[in-house]
Amino acid sequence: MDLGIAGLRTIVTAGAGGIGLEIASAFARAGARVEVCDVDEGALAALPQSDPAIAGSLCDVSDRASVQRFMDGALSRLGGLDVLVNNAGIAGPTGRVDQIDPEDWDRTLAVDITGHFNVTRLAVPALKASANPSIIGISSAAGRFGFPLRSPYAAAKWGVIGFIKSLAMELGEFGIRANAILPGSVDGPRIRSVFENKARERNLSMAEVQAMALSATSLKCLIPPRHLAHLAVFLASPVAGTISGQAIAVDGDLQMLV
């Protein structure tokens, strides 16, 4: 099935590695023109080998001057914008709220929710000129459940959903769709780090923490990153032309976060 992705001008934040690279590569394989930004200079340097179809630039989404430079360059090179994927995010600290360092709280929200604002505000004028404009925000299962020992991350990811739903209402008159993807425990280094940190806090093994997390899902498995990428491509396609304001979980039917 041809989803009509070919030629779509696409920006993916934090797109040089992990979930972001999976999403960027899926768009590139479908024929989109893709620009990514990232703070990981090593991952950016590896892009010509990991996916030579993707152009990458250094950018910290929490730094407005850095975002301005990236967006000016990317929009100029792409000649406009059809798809914005706000993927940039950090795991943040693990611990009870009274143990959280305020600087860790501030940094988590600066990247995980304010970063979405910093990029989106500069993308909207270009999206208004697109024939198929869409914004996709990567939230989390933590955006619909409480997440013990991870309050900064959960607060930011709930914020992403509120931001996306507001964008859908504000920008619908311009034909701009806005949707959120809510991953569960996605296979990769980040979730292993989260499990390790929770294991230390609870005096358990990482295997025990992972088993507890997966026991709260119907499918009892970690989520392959490609499943998120497939959904992002679909949501950006003309086939999904009337889907907006949605928060869509890709989590193996998660019932709770533990």
Task: Kindly identify the CATH topology.
Answer: Rossmann fold
Number of domains: 1
Q: What structural category characterises the helix and strand content?
A: alpha/beta
Helix and strand sequence:
EHEHEHEHEHEHHHE
Give the distance, in angstroms, between the N- and C-terminal Cα atoms: 39 Å
CATH architecture: 3-Layer(aba) Sandwich
Helix content: 40-55%
User: How large is the count of helical segments?
Assistant: 8
**CATH classification, class level:** Alpha Beta
Number of strand elements: 7
Large-scale geometry? globular
Strand order of the largest sheet: 3-2-1-4-5-6-7
Q: What ranges have pLDDT less than 50 throughout 5 or more consecutive residues?
A: none
**Proportion of beta-strand residues:** 5-15%
Query: Whole-number average pLDDT?
Result: 95
Reported for the largest beta sheet, the result is: 7 strands, parallel
Question: CATH superfamily, called what?
Answer: NAD(P)-binding Rossmann-like Domain
**Alpha carbon gyration radius:** 18 Å
Q: Which key phrases capture this entry?
A:
single chain, 258 residues, alpha/beta, Rossmann fold, seven-stranded parallel beta sheet, 14% strand
Question: How would you sum up this structure, described in words?
Answer:
Helix content is 47%, strand content 14%. It is an alpha/beta fold and 258 residues long. The protein has a single domain (9-250), classed as 3-Layer(aba) Sandwich (Rossmann fold), CATH 3.40.50.720. Strands 3-2-1-4-5-6-7 form a seven-stranded parallel beta sheet, with helices on both faces. Helix 4 links the parallel strand 4 (83-86) and strand 5 (134-138). It is globular and about 55 Å long. The termini are far apart. The relative contact order is 0.15. The model has no long low-confidence stretch (mean pLDDT 95).
